[in-house]
């Protein structure tokens, strides 16, 4: 279960929420918000790479073991589907052309993870046998991502100098078809705590996943070229955008 939560949160953070975005304070912030608005609506502009589609994210099947809260289980799932990423809002954004730095907070009201089949085997409360198999659905509520990124450059290229991430999950509701009540109770009562206890591992995984992708995208681009690309897509959109 631990690895399932780590993989899910990593994918959510890598992909970075329906709402009202923050008000931009300068041209760069206006351009970035416009790009995010287009991405939310399904238009990735010149950023088809590295921007993925937000409609539905498919995650490979997951398997593993979990021990905690009196449970010791093995689990596996079929391919997982994650929806809700496109319903995001940019709560805050600070960006500067001079320092090549951006920071902000993104919120996602609800993320829904589902699978056509899961299987659980093991024990709960240390001695009660538990088994279950069926459809899986987990809803994550009030999700928040805070980020800070700074770029460096030379005469021919740009790269990430620093990248800081933090996240929080406000609530979790699990539905396991034919699932053992003890495991569902653990997930609903302690799922958020399990995720937060693995915060640093999740952030580390995210950094390892996205840094090569971002640097590969930036390679060969000067800051001027990058800023021109962003500005070229800055078709002004209303601050309040509902998708």
TrEMBL record:
Keywords, alphabetical: Signal
Presence of the UniProt keyword Signal in the record? yes
UniProt-listed SMART domains: JHBP (SM00700)
Task: Indicate the secretion signal residues.
Answer: 1-19
Q: Which InterPro entries match?
A: Haemolymph_juvenile_hormone-bd, To_sf
Superkingdom of origin: Eukaryota
Entry-linked PANTHER family:
IP17226P, PROTEIN TAKEOUT-LIKE PROTEIN
- Write the protein's name: Uncharacterized protein
Which source organism? Loxostege sticticalis
Q: What is the lineage of its organism?
A: Eukaryota, Metazoa, Ecdysozoa, Arthropoda, Hexapoda
